[in-house]
Predict the structure.
Amino acid sequence: MDSYALYYWPNIQGRGEFVRLALEEAGAPYVDVARGKQGIARLLAVLGQEGPGHAPFAPPVLKAGDMWIAQTANILLYLGAHHGLAPRREGGRLWAHQLQLTVADCVGEVHDTHHPVSSALYYEDQKSAAKRAALEFTTKRLPKYFDYFEAVLAEHGRRRPFMLGARLSYVDLSMFQLLEGMRYAFPNAMARQAPRWPGLIDLHERVAARPNIARYLASKRRLPFCEEGIFRHYPELDP
Amino acid sequence: MDSYALYYWPNIQGRGEFVRLALEEAGAPYVDVARGKQGIARLLAVLGQEGPGHAPFAPPVLKAGDMWIAQTANILLYLGAHHGLAPRREGGRLWAHQLQLTVADCVGEVHDTHHPVSSALYYEDQKSAAKRAALEFTTKRLPKYFDYFEAVLAEHGRRRPFMLGARLSYVDLSMFQLLEGMRYAFPNAMARQAPRWPGLIDLHERVAARPNIARYLASKRRLPFCEEGIFRHYPELDP
């Protein structure tokens, strides 16, 4: 199998991390291009590509053979189909994608807690709106999303312990990352509310313990969370 | 062919409109359930459904045979494949979906201009943040998105006049709606900037003139824009 090439910012987990987790679980060979030599220049060249082709609006971008695939959920749709990380039948495939797009909506709202006014402004220039946004998010939207995901997981019962039922999918990997990120960004809000989501917490632990994922998390390939990514820990947003 | 059932808020275009446009262009029979008798109750029953099944997080939801499909872009992925509104080959199918997800990101940012702090608060309670958000969006993000879409369209040249090239896809229908909505919400910002996007303006007119779409737009099925939807005209946000 040819190696995939992933184009994403080299210093953050960001949205690229949802793709990295799928590649790692699948044991698929890939090069994280922007973390290599002249990485940023190569990433910017892909983002600014001109002429016929499928130019992406934003990273992450996955080069798979001749295809350039962008949009995180779209990349996972592709990887799910090619690496057994999603059901083959149409109904199951669409259901997995629907859940992933709901994860993506939640991730977008997490991002907007620290950038409510605009992603084009610094956090420091929208701090008071961010405080209000974070309060609204952690008290209203977070429980709405996580109660929903917990209910989806609980529907199957204990003998079918993944988001889609009996088998792991890319949705489980993304749920791991979402929970991990939320605990980093909002440790206090999560400590208060997480007891409501025992299934998701258990899922998080089981994903972390999978051999390929555990190896990845212990490696240098796994970047730490930081205040340049989606999940940022600003104490003033998590009283 | 069995009729589809669409579940969406009955009084707004909202995200459901991207689905309605695809159904109308395809000439696919569908019932807009929430606009019928006891519509809201039936919509809420679907949103609150319990027990095994594919419960949606939010509308729109399309019932297609035995399947319940939610998330706008996911529904279009399905309709595109079943009604000739997207390429059949994997590369083209993913490219169409990638563009649609980019449209969805733009739509989300439009929504956030009037609800920057939280969708759980009233507009009136986040008006000053909204003014800043709308200014940032119309001066920075809007041109970034629309310049990108214009470049995608222009790549093919005049003889292949759709977003993907020679053939209409659901992406073109969504571009029509995005441009239409932006002109409603931000007439001044659009009047200033639209000359930069002659291809998109031309595409908008050609989509509006398609027989099924023209018939739909002239019918009562097409709801007017209003200040409950995604595209809202607040004069103070469009100086």
